[in-house]
Amino acid sequence: MTGSPSYIRWFGALRIEDVPLVGGKNASLGELYATLTAAGVRVPNGFALTAEAFRVALTEADAWTELHKLLDGLDHHNLAALADRAAKARDIVYRATGGPGLREAIAEAYGALERESGKNLAVAVRSSATAEDLPTASFAGQHESYLNVHGEEAVFEACRKCFASIFTDRAIVYRIDNGFDHFMVALSVGVMKMVRSDRASSGVIFTLDTESGFRDVVFITGAYGLGENIVQGKVDPDEFYVHKPTFRQGRRAVLSRTVGGKEMRLVFARGAGEASTRNEPTPSVLRQKFCLTNAEVLELAGYALSIEDHYSARVGHPMPMDIEWAKDGGDGKLYIVQARPETVASQRQPDSFETFALKGDGRVLVSGRAVGEKIAAGTVRVVGDKADLAEFRPGEVLVAESTSPDWEPVMKTAGGIVTARGGRTCHAAIVARELGVPAVVGAAGATTKLVTGAAVTVSCAEGETGKVFEGKLPFEATRVPLTGLPRTRTKIMVNLGNPDLAFHTAMLPNDGVGLARMEFIVSEHIGVHPMALVHPEKVASAKARAQIGRLTRGYERPVDFFVERLSEGVGVIAAAFYPKPVILRLSDFKTNEYASLIGGAGFEPHEENPMLGFRGASRYAHPAYAEGFALECAAVKRVRADMGLTNLRIMVPFCRRVVEAERVIAEMARHGLARGENGLEIYVMCEIPNNVISIDAFSKLFDGFSIGSNDLTQLTLGVDRDSEIVAFDFDERDPGMLEMLRLAVTGAKRNHRHVGICGEAPANYPEIARFLVGLGIDSISVNPASVLRTIRVVSEAENAPNLSKT
Q1: Domain that holds residue 125
Q2: Are 166 and 225 in a shared domain?
Q3: Does residue 495 lie in a domain region?
Q4: Are residues 203 and 187 in the same domain?
Q5: Spatial contact of 448 and 440, defined as CB atoms under 8 Å apart
Q6: Which ranges carry the Pyruvate phosphate dikinase AMP/ATP-binding domain (predicted)?
Q7: What whole-number distance in Å separates Cα of residue 233 and Cα of residue 226?
Q8: 527 — phi, psi (to 5°)?
Q9: Which of 375, 520, 346 is nearest to 439 (CA)?
């Protein structure tokens, strides 16, 4: 081999079509550097050693024959044989790429990079396969990379090691499993200016939600130090979401943030040579803080959208991306260091919708981040290191501190995966997602609390938090075909409270959210009574004060915690269904439920019958809760004004009298939520007989009605549905109740107001659906599990020959 410059390609001269020349990673870096730096996307400069350099070096060393002998017919399930032959193959490649021609080419290019950026420049040396970063196969993590490499000789050695890594154990297995010929794949090596994220932070960006495949968000993860810890799942990273449509409209707001543990950070070992790194504990003050400011999150989101738009335009269809970012601790700037097509969530083309539901209960052994939305039961196998993998049996639940690409042959046979560390972009999560296996990552204490041989159930079906239960619990999997679903004139909406399920639920056929339950967000994502945050000095319990202190640490004022968490929860639901309407019911706890919140006991009266007591609209302007209601209004205003989610509508629950409605509307206006301003619509729950009787008067104050069939039935029939001895009399089909429904729908229509129903009655009783459709109801809102069934029931009702129109 000669030192021909044909073996060197600078990033500025590369495009995505050059994958056969320099591999997927380098071609993508060239595309980014050459086309997007002018648009403000910051990408480090560098050069690539071509795949031809690799091939020529092996040909001149007569290495191919020897490699064929080692790899042809290899049984990759024989781990001992795999390790032995892979090591010999790597040695062959390492020796073959040590010639003077390659050394000269690398020295010349590295020298040019030094002249541009400084003497003894630190660079990252990264492998790039010619079958890499394809839309259907990522090859992520299969080959080696070397960081913080200084000097001509060290760069040369790192390049040789990268070439040799084409035959790592995991790369061999990956090629076999994905149908790639070992000898049709070549390796290129990229050398690029090092971004010193060891002194700052780094992470991964996806231009969709990795669990549901929802396309309208940018999902960003980050932690302190080099990015390898996130990829390997050694830390629980910070997570951020940004909503694409409103971002493109100029709204610069982070949709939601979750602080991760960030237990350690990977830094370079002092005085050590090439690629020598060490993990050190992250100082507690940094662990408690986000590794990125909101402004930096938004800058990265802008980069991500530019990259996605560019790649989508290149291929002529939407192309979700998987992007690596790094922040330089020296200049404080953010850089994009890799971008590839996302190869898992974006490839799903569902013809059916599958849901999982536990049918039993048990003790939760550990919990962490849910990956996927499935449930699996099996026997635990705790794996400490690679040597333990030989004992693993198909169908077992693999439990480990973290996983690595070397483990993938075994992970493919696992019934479930649980790791003590890691976030939703770590190696274990990526593989589990690709395989369709439920996984719980970042489950602290998993390797000690879960014992080999024990039966467990891994559940990822309840939102963002995944749980591992003791024993094998019964569960149900339901698959409903999406093909052939009829379109209905009546809007079919969903009831939803848990923001963690919003993106997944939004993938169902729907016309928006007919009932978003604020109280679920307050109880599950905040946990503190709002008045305890307004007046922490009045909280008598020392334990409650300590809990409030921990939760609000880092906030300027305790109330800011409530407003931020509530606005993020509501915002995620509104974003998931944007621009469809999302009707948010203001808090509707009973006094006993409010009292159970942290610090709540001292702010709530004791009532014998909370169902008919101090709840809903009666609270909002009352001195006992008005300051808490102001926080609810501040959160809603932030969602609509700052986040730009103007599809959010407000609904007032349990509004007994017209004069009460007037007080509530005035109170909302006082807090910046005036009806009609910025398109704000305010609805009222129609769940008290007086709402029906006085519907003409209520229509003058509200834009729409949502019939709460549960409370309306209780109050019409005088039946407590929670009382077993009289519950048999609770029946929405009672003639008196049907008359109430008729009066509510026709009254709203008479006043040209929207009218819907939020309850399971239409899904459970087709005759009620037919009755409501015949009345001309505008929308029916049911729980997600009932949506598809309700669509069919309503379609049949709309097409019934004897449908009566009112």
Answers
A1: 5-194
A2: no
A3: yes
A4: no
A5: no
A6: 20-351
A7: 13
A8: 80, -10
A9: 375
Instruction: Express each pLDDT in 551-581 by its tens digit.
Output: 999 899 999 999 999 999 999 999 999 999 9
First to last CA, the chain: 87
Q: Average pLDDT, whole number, for the chain?
A: 91
Q: What is the mean pLDDT of residues 73-85?
A: 88
The CB density around residue 749, as the number of other CB atoms within 10 Å, is 16
Residue among 619, 423, 609, 439 nearest 529 (CA): 619
Domain boundary among 480, 502, 534: 480
Confidence (pTM): 0.86
Q: For a pLDDT cut of 70, what percent of the chain falls above it? A: 96
For residues 589 and 722, state if they share a domain: yes
Q: Give the separation between CA 785 and CA 794, rounded to whole angstroms.
A: 15
Q: Would 803 be classed as within a structural domain?
A: no
- Residue 806 forms part of a structural domain: no
Whether 167 contacts 93, CB under 8 Å:
yes
Q: How confident is the model at residue 185 (pLDDT cuts 50, 70, 90)?
A: confident
Q: At what angle do helices 294-315 and 19-36 cross, to 10 degrees?
A: 130
Q: Phi/psi class of residue 721: alpha, beta or left (left: φ > 0; alpha: ψ in -120 to 50)?
A: alpha
Please tell me the predicted confidence (pLDDT) of residue 272: 43
pLDDT band at 270 (very low <50, low <70, confident <90, very high): low
Cα–Cα distance for residue pair 597/107, rounded to 1 Å: 66
Please state, in angstroms and rounded to a whole number, the distance separating the CA atoms of residues 536 and 559.
Answer: 10
Residue 805 lies in a domain: no
Same-domain pairing of 281 and 381: no
Q: List the Cα angle 424/42/218 in 5-degree steps.
A: 30
The candidate with the shortest Cα–Cα distance to 9, out of 414, 620, 23, is 23
Please state, for a pLDDT cut of 90, what percent of the chain lies above it: 72
Q: Is the pLDDT of residue 5 over 70?
A: no
Tokens for 785, please give them. 């599990």
Q: Name the one residue in this structure whose structure tokens are 């996605």.
A: 308
What crossing angle do the helices spanning 79-96 and 169-177 adopt, rounded to 10°?
A: 110
Do 558 and 466 fall into the same domain?
no
Under 8 Å CB-to-CB from 304, ≥6 apart: which residues? 205, 207, 218, 220, 321, 323
- Label each residue of 534-575 as H, E or C: HCHHHCCCHHHHHHHHHHCCCCCCHHHHHHHHHHHHHHHHHH
> Structurally, how many domains does the chain consist of?
4
Q: What is the DSSP string of 645-681?
A: -TTEEEEE-S---HHHHHHHHHHHHHTT--TTGGG--
Q: 704-707 and 682-686: which strand pairing?
A: parallel
Task: Please report, for the domain that includes residue 112, its CATH number.
Answer: 3.30.1490.20
Catalytic one of 76, 143, 243, 427: 427
The predicted-structure confidence for 136-160, as pLDDT tens digits, reads as follows 444 455 788 898 898 999 999 999 9
Judge whether 655 counts as a catalytic residue. no
Residue where a domain stops, chosen among 322, 347, 372: 347
Q: Is residue 161 domain-shared with residue 16, that is, in the same domain?
A: yes
Q: Note if 427 is an active site residue.
A: yes
